[in-house]
Design goal:
Number of strands: 18
Distance between the termini: 28 Å
Helix content: 10-25%
Structural class: alpha/beta
Number of helices: 8
Mean pLDDT: 90
Shape: globular
Largest sheet: 8 strands, antiparallel
Radius of gyration: 23 Å
Bound molecules: zinc ion
C-alpha cells in the first residue's frame, strides 16, 4: 500500500512537468548574429534579435535598428553558426512617423551556400504589431530581411524566426575540443563544497518551479532617485542579460522553454521618496533591512522559502521573488549566487545601454551553478566570461558549461 502511494505521487509529479509540445516551435533568432546593409550611428542592429517585444512601432524605450538617411533597398541579416530549419518569421517594423517609416514592401531571403534566394510567401505590411510570413520550411544558416523603402528610411524593432522543435533541438554534441575541458569543469563542480545533485536552489530549480519564468526583487541600496523610466530600463536590461543565458539553452537537449520571461515584482528601498513613481506595478518594501541593505520581504523570497510555498507573502505566491538584483552605491565588482546578483548601482545604470553588462552576466552565471576560475584554467581554454577579467560576453565555452549543468541536473525534473 505504501509503495502504491509512492507510485501515485511519482506519476503526479511527472504530470507537473511541462510537456514537450510546449516547445513545438522555437524562436531561433536570438541565437543568430545580426548585421545590416546600413545602421544609423545612434541605432543598433543587435536590437532586432534581443528578445525584447516592442510596445509600438515608434518605441522610444528599447533599442532599434534604423537606416536613416539611407533609403532604397535595405536589409538586415541573421547569421547562425549552424543551419536552422525555419518555417515562419515575424517582423516588427520601426516607424517614427518622420525619418523612418514602414517599407512599401519586404521579403525574406535564405542563403543556399552561394547566393540569396527569395522565400515565396505573403508579406503584409502593418505597424504597431508583429507581421507574420509563413512558408514551406527552409534550412539555411542565413535569413535576410529585405525592406524596400517608401517615403523615408526603414528599420526593424524585432525579428523572430521559428524553427520546428524536432529540427531545432540539439542533443549533447559539444565541439570536440571542448569535451576534455568540460569534463574537467564538471569533475571540479562535483568535488566542490556544494553537492550539485543535492542542492535545490539553482536558477534551474527556480525556473522549473515557476513553469518557465523568474521573478526578481531589486534591492536599491543607494540614495540616488529612481524614475519610472529608470526602473523600466533596469528591468529591461536585467531581462536582456538573463535572456542571454537562456538563449544558450533554447532548443538544446530537451530544455523546454524557448524564452524565460523575467518579472520584477518588487523594489526595496530605505526611503520611499527615492522611488519617483506612484503606480503599483511593483511591490515596494521600505526599511526592511538585512546585511545593512534594503530587501523585499523574506516571506516572499525563495531563498528563505525553498519549499516553494509562500504562505506569509502579502499578495501570495505570484508576488514571490526567486532572486534579488542587489544594487549597491559605490561598489566595484560583483557577487552572485542562488540568492541573486550584487553589482554597483552606478555600474549598472552607466551600462544599461551596453550589449553585454558583463559583471551582471557573470554573476547570473553563478545563479545556475557555474563556478569561478580563480586558480585554474580548463585545458585549452584561455578566455571566457566565468573566468573573471578574460572575456566580457558569453563565449562558446561558457555556453557549453551551462548546457553541461543542465545535462547533469535535468533528470531531477523528469527530462
Ligand atoms: Zn564570480
Amino acid at each position: 500500500m505504501r509503495r502504491l502511494f509512492a507510485v501515485v505521487a511519482l506519476l503526479a509529479g511527472f504530470l507537473l512537468v511541462p510537456t514537450r509540445s510546449d516547445a513545438a516551435v522555437v524562436n531561433v533568432a536570438p541565437w543568430a548574429t545580426a548585421t545590416a546593409s546600413y545602421t544609423s550611428p545612434w541605432e543598433n542592429v543587435a536590437a532586432i534579435n534581443d528578445g525584447v517585444d516592442p510596445s509600438r512601432s515608434n518605441d522610444l524605450r528599447n533599442r532599434r535598428w534604423g537606416t536613416w538617411p539611407q533609403a532604397g533597398e535595405q536589409w538586415a541579416l541573421l547569421t547562425w553558426p549552424s543551419a536552422q530549419t525555419i518555417s515562419s518569421a515575424q517582423v516588427y517594423f520601426f516607424d517614427d512617423g518622420g525619418g523612418v517609416r514602414e517599407p512599401v514592401s519586404w521579403r525574406l531571403q535564405s542563403w543556399d551556400g552561394a547566393a540569396y534566394a527569395d522565400i515565396p510567401a505573403a508579406y503584409p505590411v502593418t505597424v504597431d504589431g508583429y507581421v507574420t510570413a509563413s512558408f514551406p520550411a527552409v534550412t539555411t544558416t542565413r535569413l535576410r530581411i529585405v525592406l524596400e523603402s517608401g517615403k523615408a528610411a526603414v528599420g526593424l524593432l524585432e525579428v523572430k524566426a521559428f524553427a520546428d522543435t524536432a529540427a531545432a533541438q540539439s542533443g549533447w554534441n559539444p565541439p570536440a575540443a571542448l569535451v576534455t575541458p568540460l569534463d574537467e569543469v564538471w569533475r571540479h563542480t562535483e568535488s566542490g563544497d556544494r553537492d550539485p545533485y543535492g542542492f535545490r536552489n539553482f536558477g534551474w530549480d527556480q525556473i522549473m518551479a515557476n513553469g518557465g519564468s523568474i521573478n526578481y526583487c531589486v534591492r536599491w541600496d543607494s540614495p540616488a532617485p529612481v524614475s519610472a523610466e529608470l526602473r523600466d530600463r533596469i528591468h529591461a536590461a536585467l531581462g536582456r542579460s538573463f535572456g542571454k543565458w537562456m538563449n544558450v539553452m533554447a532548443g538544446h537537449d530537451g530544455w523546454p522553454y524557448a524564452e524565460v520571461p523575467v518579472k520584477v515584482v518588487g523594489w526595496a528601498v530605505r526611503d520611499r521618496a527615492t522611488l519617483q513613481w506612484d503606480d503599483d506595478s511593483v511591490d515596494v518594501y521600505v526599511g526592511d533591512m538585512r546585511e545593512n541593505a534594503p530587501q523585499c520581504a523574506e516571506p516572499c523570497g525563495r531563498f528563505f522559502n525553498q519549499s516553494g510555498a509562500y504562505p506569509d507573502c502579502p499578495g501570495g505566491a505570484s508576488h514571490h521573488y526567486d532572486m534579488s538584483l542587489w544594487l549597491t552605491a559605490g561598489m566595484d565588482g560583483g557577487a552572485g549566487g542562488d540568492w541573486g546578483q550584487r553589482v554597483g548601482s552606478e555600474y549598472l545604470v552607466d551600462n544599461l545601454g551596453s550589449d553585454d553588462i558583463h559583471i551582471l552576466l557573470h554573476e547570473i552565471g553563478h545563479g545556475f551553478g557555474l563556478d569561478d576560475f580563480y586558480d585554474w584554467t580548463p585545458t585549452g581554454q584561455c578566455c571566457f566570461l566565468m573566468k573573471a577579467g578574460t572575456a566580457t560576453s558569453i563565449t562558446e565555452f561558457d555556453a557549453w558549461m551551462l548546457r553541461d549543468l543542465w545535462r547533469h541536473l535535468k533528470s531531477r525534473y523528469g527530462y
